[in-house]
Design goal:
Length: 716
């Protein structure tokens, strides 16, 4: 039985919080008010999320147990106490995923003439087409294997889809059963488009096509049974940087070694023969509860395919064009503009083009003599790479690349090497710290003879692709206070040269944590003195205990606190005497909420900060992060009067966190209010279709009794 700990009174469990987040994403797949193909995409996202969670977080818990680690987590539970509950929750979640697919999405797709067919449902024309495709494209890539003393079990790659077969030699009908394995080629789409009537979309699973041709691959065998399966392996990345001769080489080696990770999950078709399941389970050294039966396609993340392949705009969100940025009449270029005022952009409502243009103009402008930029993640065809490459021919060009961006290491290595070959000075940041800050700096000799720095600081990655569906903020500025400190941050990243004071920037791991704690304490002092005191903080995750405890103290002192946390939150809101004045909401909708905004009422003299860091231990102590104040009056007013109020007024996509870590839709708790979506509103503002008057005044949710909570959950 799990122990009761004082921590459990202060914090909810991290793993439970993560599962709650993925359930909120699944709710979007289940929501009939969303367009059908968007719902399919949401379901695919839950599969992708769960993959990463299992191979990193759950695998990490298993590793800790094997290593004898017994330190309790945030909720006071040891790893060996958390893992069984987590595994049971994942099983329940997988059941819900396939219930959504089979009970809702698959039938509705069929009604829209988008069908996923089984072989027996194909007509002769479709079968002939599929067989021709098999002979031409599939068969040359297959390597059938039978397991016997001469052929040991093959090395199954992480998350590779395979077919397992139960075989028996025809000449030995009473002989032992043999296991066969065929790996489904990763180079091919999992869904084969079949000939169909105009406007219809018929598909066959690639593994089903391979299954129809197993007899030809296993001549001399009788195929008794077969099933699709997939193994997930531990993908934690461990190495000692201090012992590495080259960080670049170490990451490359670890990427190779990652394939050797232990299996942590087996997914297999629901109807698989028990003998197949048992042989696979024993081979991969898994317990019974690590076997997940899939009542549908194994690997739901592959359903992303339908969203891109099915050309049905009526089954997707209406097209949205971000608002273009236009220079003032007196400005001939972005540098003229920035000498007059800062520019704040809210993506994707504002186009990301100005950020790309900032880098491209810097590369092309002969007056720009130096360019520096950090890079965590970007797209394969990023225009920024080409701009930096071209700039290196006649400018001092520096790039700080984060090699350890999880699951992006291989592409980042490729980029780092190509940039070095082009003459760009490439650095990998401070040893032991991830470089997660989003900074770009241009040094320009302006027309008036003065050399100035121009900077971009942001909350999101330099990725024009994700900027279309991630909400992030960008600040373009020539403010000397900002730009000088950005210069000092680059010195820290390339030379580990520290200074005592980075203000007005908050820089992790050097000053940020203590600065945030100081800002929260200041708000507490305002409340104790009877002055207005309010904190609004928007982020991806809230896990840092010292921050949470400071928020508890502020709440008890009278500070009103509204937290907008997309993902994990272990804070317990609404607990009498602890967090009465704290409200936590999560918004999951069309766009992925990625911006970090921190508003402090400061007794009526509002301060707003934005930046790259969440309130998590890794962001505050294990990464180089930058958070910065918004000072331009127009930019400040936009966040204060438009962006934050819209999120706090959301009743359509917002879920309100309960003290036990569960979430309820705001619409279930806020009675008699009109539906309001922050994201829809912000799109309408960008299109000039509405204004600030459309934001309803936020309504406080009334405290719920245990009985009313149960009723609300049942209704949800």
């Amino acid at each position: 039985m799990a122990r009761t700990s004082p921590k459990q009174k202060l914090f909810n469990g991290r793993d439970h919080s993560w599962m709650q987040f993925n359930r909120r994403v699944l709710e979007e797949a289940e929501d009939p008010s969303n367009p059908l193909l968007e719902r399919v995409k949401f379901l695919a996202i839950t599969g992708s999320n769960l993959d990463e969670y299992v191979e990193v977080r759950q695998a990490g818990l298993m590793q800790r147990i094997e290593d004898g680690y017994r330190e309790p987590g945030y909720d006071g539970l040891r790893p060996d106490e958390s893992l069984p509950m987590l595994t049971a929750e994942i099983h329940s979640f997988v059941d819900a995923q396939y219930k959504c697919w089979n009970g809702q999405l698959l039938p509705e797709l069929s009604q829209q003439r988008v069908r996923l067919l089984e072989w027996r449902e194909l007509d002769e024309e479709a079968k002939a087409f599929a067989q021709s495709y098999f002979q031409r494209e599939v068969d040359p890539l297959l390597t059938p294997i039978s397991i016997d003393p001469a052929h040991p079990f093959p090395r199954v790659l992480n998350k590779a889809l395979c077919l397992a077969l139960l075989l028996r030699r025809k000449r030995k009908s009473s002989g032992p059963q043999v296991l066969g394995v065929v790996t489904v080629p990763r180079a091919l789409s999992r869904f084969i488009r079949l000939p169909s009537a105009e406007g219809a979309y018929d598909y066959l699973l690639l593994q089903d096509l391979i299954a129809q041709n197993l007899v030809g691959m296993y001549r001399g065998y009788e195929v008794l049974s077969r099933a699709s399966f997939r193994v997930t392996r531990n993908s934690n990345l461990y190495f000692e940087e201090e012992e590495a001769r080259s960080l670049l080489e170490t990451i490359r080696v670890e990427l190779h070694n990652r394939r050797k990770g232990d299996a942590v999950r087996l997914e297999i078709e629901t109807g698989a023969h028990e003998e197949i399941i048992e042989r696979l389970r024993v081979n991969f050294e898994l317990d019974e509860d690590q076997v997940f039966r899939c009542d549908g396609p194994v690997n739901l993340s592959r359903l992303f395919f339908f969203y891109s392949d099915v050309r049905r705009p009526d089954l997707k969100f209406p097209h949205f064009t971000p608002k273009a940025f236009n220079l003032s009449r007196k400005s001939s270029n972005i540098f003229d503009e920035l000498r007059r005022h800062d520019v704040l952009l809210h993506h994707p409502y504002d186009s990301y083009d100005p950020v790309v243009d900032f880098i491209q103009q810097g590369a092309a402008d002969p007056a720009v003599v130096s360019m520096k930029q950090t890079l965590y993640r970007t797209s394969d065809d990023s225009p920024m790479f080409q701009a930096l490459t071209e700039a290196s021919a006649n400018k001092e060009t520096t790039l700080v690349v984060e090699l350890m961006a999880r699951f992006d290491e291989a592409s980042n290595i490729r980029w780092a090497r190509s940039m070095e070959d082009a003459g760009v000075q490439v650095f990998h940041g401070v040893v032991g710290l991830k470089t997660h800050c989003k900074l770009a700096m241009l040094v320009r000799r302006d027309e008036d003879g003065v050399t100035r720095r121009y900077c971009h600081l942001g909350t999101g990655n330099y990725n024009p692709d994700t900027a279309r569906f991630y909400t992030d903020l960008s600040l373009l500025t020539s403010d000397p206070q900002f730009t000088e400190r950005v210069h000092m941050v680059f010195n820290y990243l390339t030379a580990h040269a520290e200074i005592d004071d980075y203000l007005p920037l908050l820089v992790a791991p050097l000053t940020m944590a203590e600065s945030f704690l100081g800002l929260i304490r200041r708000e507490q002092e305002h409340a104790q003195a009877g002055r207005p005191a309010h904190i609004v903080a928007k982020m991806n995750a809230l896990l840092e205990p010292s921050i949470i405890e400071a928020l508890y103290a502020a709440s008890q002192a009278g500070v009103e606190i509204d937290l907008i946390v997309r993902g994990l939150s272990i804070l317990r809101p609404g607990v009498k005497g602890l967090s009465d004045r704290i409200r936590v909401r999560s918004i999951v909708g069309r766009f992925l909420e990625h911006s970090r905004i921190f508003h402090f009422g400061n007794g009526g003299n509002d301060e707003i900060y934005i930046g790259s860091a969440d309130w998590m231990p890794r962001n505050l102590f294990e990464r180089c992060e930058v958070v910065f104040p918004v000072r331009d009056p127009v930019a400040l007013a936009r966040i204060h009067d438009e962006i934050l109020p819209a999120y706090l007024a959301d009743t359509l996509k917002a879920r309100l966190q309960q003290s036990d870590g569960s979430y309820l839709r705001a619409s279930k708790l806020l009675k008699d209010v009109k539906p309001f979506s922050a994201q829809d509103f912000l799109m309408q503002v960008a299109e000039g279709k509405t204004d600030l008057e459309a934001i309803p005044k936020p309504q406080a949710a009334k405290p719920l009794t245990k009985t009313s909570v149960k009723k609300a959950h049942a209704a949800d």
